[in-house]
Amino acid sequence: xxxxxxxxxxxxxxxxxxxxxxxxxxxxxxxxxxxxxxxxxxxxxxxxxxxxxxxxxxxxxxxxxxxxxxxxxxxxxxxxxxxxxxxxxxxxxxxxxxxxxxxxxxxxxxxxxxxxxx
Amino acid sequence: xxxxxxxxxxxxxxxxxxxxxxxxxxxxxxxxxxxxxxxxxxxxxxxxxxxxxxxxxxxxxxxxxxxxxxxxxxxxxxxxxxxxxxxxxxxxxxxxxxxxxxxxxxxxxxxxxxxxxxxxxxxxxxxxxxxxxxxxxxxxxxxxxxxxxxxxxxxxxxxxxxxxxxxxxxxxxxxxxxxxxxxxxxxxxxxxxxxxxxxxxxxxxxxxxxxxxxxxxxxxxxxxxxxxxxxxxxxxxxxxxx
Lengths: 118, 242
Prior knowledge:
The structure holds 2 protein chains of 2 kinds. By secondary structure, chain A is mainly alpha-helical. Chain A has helices spanning 2-21, 28-43, 48-59, 66-70, 76-81, 83-111.
């Protein structure tokens, strides 16, 4: 289990190093994800400890967002002042993004004739 | 005796409230409350665990006069796990690699359309409603996962800490609204549904998608990673028009 956690951290660390070295706009953890995906495909199988560690983390994914969300208290004044533009922008834009992404995905899938569920 | 007891508690508080332990425990406790309420409500997305935990914590912090910086001393240990959790998204991707490979084309098309929609519509609406320039810039990467969004915001002259909050507001709202919206437009394919959830509401949309379906969660995770990369390239170009 320690080795599994270490593998995740090492992928993140390598991602951080690459991101910082070349001043990439893509952050380390995302590069780490790409790296781990590449390693898994290369090895062709998934170690069960890594699977357990990953499933644990992903099972509690929304917990990890709480500290950032509490940051609302440090920006309260500006958000209160510009409440209307911020709220309308977030509400409308989020609904639009869901609709556009889902419909485009579905349209291309149908055009390819692979409409059936996997 | 009462006085002595009171001063002991006061002393204990003075000591504990600057310690990471207290705010780490408070974060887990607040989230446990939110998660329990979410379960009691039969998984109703309106009863959102992150929103409840945030409201509880903010009231306690404001009520006790504790600063966000002090709170974060403890909460950083939870915050840190976002990194390894992002790396861990590779695991469901690997499990579903054959499904993903077959959907490469729809993924790319939806990625392009979705990331342009997310950034351009937020910027245009905020501008039309008279938001200040810094708020508009901070809103542009709102649909992207927090660490990428903060980086983009800083790069284009927004406020990274404001962006972090806007990203959270987007994620919470997106996680609540994604299912009704997809049902309303009649999209039933789990791949399309998950991808849309990740595009609009990043990790919180992904967490929501995993609650409903493994394939949907995988496609949401793919969308988060790809949207982060696409938006990092796209938003700096977009704001040059403003």
